[in-house]
Amino acid sequence: xxxxxxxxxxxxxxxxxxxxxxxxxxxxxxxxxxxxxxxxxxxxxxxxxxxxxxxxxxxxxxxxxxxxxxxxxxxxxxxxxxxxxxxxxxxxxxxxxxxxxxxxxxxxxxxxxxxxxxxxxxxxxxxxxxxxxxxxxxxxxxxxxxxxxxxxxxxxxxxxxxxxxxxxxxxxxxxxxxxxxxxxxxxxxxxxxxxxxxxxxxxxxxxxxxxxxxxxxxxxxxxx
Length: 224
Ligand SMILES: Nc1ncnc2c1ncn2[C@@H]1O[C@H](COP(=O)(O)OP(=O)(O)OP(=O)(O)O)[C@@H](O)[C@H]1O
Ligand SMILES: [Mg+2]
Known about the structure:
By secondary structure, this protein is α/β, with parallel strands linked by helices. The protein has helices at residues 14-27, 42-50, 62-75, 88-97, 109-118, 120-128, 149-158, 172-179, 192-205, 211-223, and strands at residues 2-5, 32-36, 55-58, 78-82, 100-106, 134-140, 162-163. It starts with a strand and ends with a helix.
């Protein structure tokens, strides 16, 4: 399965979610490849240090994305693609192959107004491919003023985008994890809320990713 974190708006949390998602899938025993499609290479640098066992690939432009994603898909259960903040061609290319587009979006009135423009390429891809990729928006860096999220709910429903029940809130732990070459769930007590929230989000997005584990656990219990 190819999961693309996209939003042509910069600084909305694509790399933060991509790195954590690759780490989370890996820790659930999944074969995952992180495909860093942003020339800033922030998620690949981070994941290489935080979890060197994860295969990391850099795809520098739209051609590399179009040419290499199909073979990467054959090599892993999940290919997590960190989309660029500006080069829309690369994002378009990603959505030609992606099974799921995850769109982090900040919860503010300005962002809600820009969501249409910044996600137009998602609807274009769905129209060309006659359906896929599935697309879901995630409220990112949600602050204390939750009232603002209503604009985002309205904007998402106008665009027929589903919005996850779990938002990602603004927390220092998310910003600190890459610099400490770690993930929020390894940061101990002070980051427990971030760890719980990101686990809830990923379970919501990919319930099947942990289901085998639950099954084998149940089988194990039965055997005892
Ligand atoms: N939930 C959060 N709480 C606090 N800080 C966050 C959160 N999510 C991301 N950040 C910080 O915000 C900044 C932008 O996040 P990130 O790099 O993930 O966005 P991006 O969409 O990948 O940006 P770009 O478009 O430039 O690639 C980073 O410094 C990151 O550490
Ligand atoms: Mg990024």
